[in-house]
From TrEMBL:
Keyword Electron transport: yes
PROSITE patterns per the UniProt record, alphabetical: CYTOCHROME_B561
Protein keywords: Cytoplasmic vesicle, Electron transport, Heme, Iron, Membrane, Metal-binding, Translocase, Transmembrane, Transmembrane helix, Transport
Protein name per UniProt: Transmembrane ascorbate-dependent reductase CYB561
One Pfam family this sequence matches: Cytochrom_B561
Origin: domain of life: Eukaryota
Cytochrome b561 domain boundaries: 20-221
Gene name for this UniProt entry: Cyb561
Cell compartment(s), UniProt: Cytoplasmic vesicle, Secretory vesicle, Chromaffin granule membrane
UniProt membrane topology term: Multi-pass membrane protein
Length: 253
């Protein structure tokens, strides 16, 4: 920012939507904890309660942290692009680690209790989402965070990266909804249709997941809320294109 120039501001409405998204995210985490603590006995490793670490970890990682990682470029609009990229990758990486803990919890719990693995629609969708998410993270780091990919290759991959980022976020929420339904049908199938408190609370969690996804999705698709490139970033981008593609700024080879 030049001396005497007013500080950059966020577009109208963006800050309010960011606040709503974080309020929804924290509420869905609290609701998950309340459900598991009040009706499922809580969370503990190496015990019959080990399974409960799975829904808690997956909501925290594949929904809340993934959603926040997607919003990094909307929230940090005026920071250096390199720092924003690093934060974006770090949040996704943290989400992957926590999700892996959640996956290990459910496999360990199934092994202990003699329950078969990977037979339900929830498990198929959930595992596919995790594997694709891991692949998306590695490709994103390879193309955008670390040097190596050419300017034209980055330009080709960027739309694919954006599409699969949003698609995986949708798949993550869908898998969580399938998982909630599966738990309710296994645990309270006899009383679920009678509007028991646990069923109402779990359904509320599902509604919060959808609401969080809708708010994040709306913010990601508002064209005027996209992060504008800074002047120095445009210059660096031109220099990078010159180095990797052999073109001068004027277009000559």
């Amino acid at each position: 920012v030049m001396d005497g120039a007013p500080p950059p501001t966020s577009p109208t409405g963006l800050s309010a939507y960011v606040a709503v998204s974080q309020l929804l995210g924290l509420t869905l985490l609290a609701t998950t904890g309340a459900w598991l603590g009040r009706y499922r006995g809580g969370v503990a490793w190496n015990s019959p309660l080990q399974f409960n670490a799975h829904p808690l970890c997956m909501v925290l990682s594949m929904v809340f942290l993934q959603g926040d990682a997607l919003l990094v470029y909307r929230v940090f609009r005026h920071e250096a692009k390199r720092s924003t990229k690093a934060l974006h990758a770090l949040l996704h990486g943290l989400a992957l680690v926590i999700a892996l803990v959640g996956i290990l919890a459910v496999f360990e719990s199934h092994r202990t209790k003699g329950i078969p693995d990977m037979y339900s629609l929830h498990s198929w969708c959930g595992m596919a989402t995790f594997v694709l998410y891991l692949l998306q993270w590695f490709l994103g780091c390879g193309f955008f965070l670390f040097p190596g990919a050419s300017f034209s290759l980055r330009g080709w991959y960027k739309p694919q990266h954006i599409f699969f980022g949003i698609a995986l976020f949708i798949l993550s929420i869908t898998s969580c909804l399938l998982g909630i339904t599966e738990i309710l049908l296994f645990k309270i199938s006899d009383s679920y249709s009678h509007f028991v408190p646990e069923g109402i609370l779990a359904n509320t969690l599902g509604v919060l997941l959808v609401a969080f996804g809708l708010v994040v999705g709306y913010m990601l698709t508002r064209e005027e809320w996209k992060r504008p490139p800074l002047a120095e970033e445009l210059a660096l981008s031109m220099d990078f294109k010159t180095l990797t593609e052999g073109e001068s700024p004027g277009g000559g080879s």
